[in-house]
Known about the structure:
The protein is α+β, with helices and mostly antiparallel strands. The protein contains four helices and twelve strands.
Amino acid sequence: xxxxxxxxxxxxxxxxxxxxxxxxxxxxxxxxxxxxxxxxxxxxxxxxxxxxxxxxxxxxxxxxxxxxxxxxxxxxxxxxxxxxxxxxxxxxxxxxxxxxxxxxxxxxxxxxxxxxxxxxxxxxxxxxxxxxxxxxxxxxxxxxxxxxxxxxxxxxxxxxxxxxxxxxxxxxxxxxxxxxxxxxxxxxxxxxxxxxxxxxxxxxxxxxxxxxxxxxxxxxxxxxxxxxxxxxxxxxxxxxxxxxxxxxxxxxxxxxxxxxxxxxxxxxxxxxxxxxxxxxxxxxxxx
Length: 287
């Protein structure tokens, strides 16, 4: 009798079978939906996140202003060697030599120093060879007709040899990228100009000549204009550039219907002081 009572007592306190509540089911469904949404957002949102980072870099480059007296290109051997010791300078990676210096230049030859900016390299989809050039100017410019473009100006040299070397200035007008994933800035117009063409009979600078280029400046009174100062064997010059509207190209020039860049060399201020091979140019703004 007592055993039967104990059995009944045990049964009366047996745990109830576990049941899933409606509240728990709703929580599980919401968690599943949230996880699925995060997975979809990660898969499809990554390209937009990457594009947002690129556009942020684009805005930074378009507003860039280098110190006005910063040396961005130097050919004098001693000064160039001094600059190349700085992290933001480099020499041409694959210099092109004249036949007399092929395949190897003289042991005492010193390559020029090129200023480069990693942000510009990452933003501008330029050819590998162009990325080795020295960056002298990059900033947003607006033509008289209202076209807004980022303009860059680089300097590169080639054909190093016993007779000298050739130097070219290359200007690019960049159409900004959009929010479309994968969109990148596009070089709408590019113009190259060999340096001495306007003021020497040869397209090459003589081996005894030296060239020092300073960072470019915007013209606060003219949104389309920019200026780059340089010294050719101690003589001071300026390279002027303008972002022009379509249809204003000179007679005989090919018309593309796109904004273009005009370049013009002008003598700035004669100086009798020649650059010394041992000159150590400033790389920081003067105070």
